[in-house]
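Lecture notes, unit on binding sites. The following record was shown on slide 14. It pairs a sequence with zinc ion.
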Amino acid sequence: MRVLVTGGAGFIGSQVVAALAARGHDPVVLDALLPAAHPEPPPLPDAEWIHADVRDRAATARALRGVDAVCHQAAMVGLGKDFADAPEYVGCNDLGTAVLLAAMAEAGVTELVLAGSMVVYGEGRYDCPRHGQVRPGPRAAADLTAGRFEPLCRECGAELTPGLVGEDAGMDPRNVYATTKLAQEHLAAAWARATGGRAVALRYHNVYGPGMPRDTPYAGVASFFRSALERGEAPRVFEDGRQRRDFVHVGDVADANAIALEAVRGREPGALSAYNTGSGTPHTVGEMAAVLAAAHGGPSPVVTGEFRLGDVRHITADSRRLRAELGWNSQVGFAEGMAEFATSGLRGAVG
Ligand SMILES: NC(=O)c1ccc[n+]([C@@H]2O[C@H](COP(=O)([O-])OP(=O)(O)OC[C@H]3O[C@@H](n4cnc5c(N)ncnc54)[C@H](O)[C@@H]3O)[C@@H](O)[C@H]2O)c1
Ligand SMILES: [Zn+2]
């Protein structure tokens, strides 16, 4: 199968390219090598590749020639520097997706796997002892400043128990990036309905592993900690370190993409199906920092109480649907994966 991997020079995309090649497919890469993602030129993809922006309709149309399916990884990621980044996020992620889908419709390419994200949910799942399953709203700056990190029940103010979020949970994007990731899914669903296409969105949780970018404003928390350790500094853990996440290894995410690309042909035409893509075993951010520091042989983490307003408290995945329907399984455990990540290379220059 010939697969166009947009963003195929990136952290996850490059591993998707490798996974596809290993399974006997023929990947072709389109990547703009965004300076925010690549402070230094990355190793060139080990595949046929086109240096172009997905918003460039002509280049994208050329890249689609002879292609059976598209794996759309290209996006601006992370929280960015400030709100001034919003037009660039919306441009890359949503205009980019619209241009790609229009070109696919024109070329008659009907199979799509989209890199989705858990950020579409906002906060994860919570249960109140009195009100059952509830959705807490955004946390107030005053609460966070005072060290009150746990969201409470909006009805009765009770403490909540965090659980695993399923794909049918409500959508509640909390920042510009999250909004663009949700819009990508809606665009893909609209494209599928309008063209009879088939789409799978893999909602990745916190992806980590070799080749992760260094600590730019666009990177994830595992990369901040890993970069600090490389500088000989202690990882600085925000809030009280007890925020829960699902850390999933990039190799597992790449496999999920390859499996989804092979399965998408058999899916219902005209629809998008979404799958959480997480390891299934939540860990706290503080735990992750401690395991990384120990494996790196660096200073122990410092819990700072700092916070970022756009962050949610707990978000962990129920990934049973991906296992049951597509037969995917996470292969890399937390301890093993973090030990490898503690010493493997990061991408790009230290800021
Ligand atoms: N890393 C995570 O934890 C995580 C979690 C959830 C979802 N995702 C999603 O996974 C995908 C890949 O993310 P990543 O972590 O590998 O990031 P990355 O920055 O390493 O890779 C993204 C790649 O896309 C390219 N790109 C961006 N905009 C482009 C455009 N307009 N045209 C062409 N190329 C463009 C960049 O140059 C880069 O090579 C993204 O869609 C992201 O939203 C990542
Ligand atoms: Zn309640």
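Take-home: The chain has one domain: 2-124+165-343.
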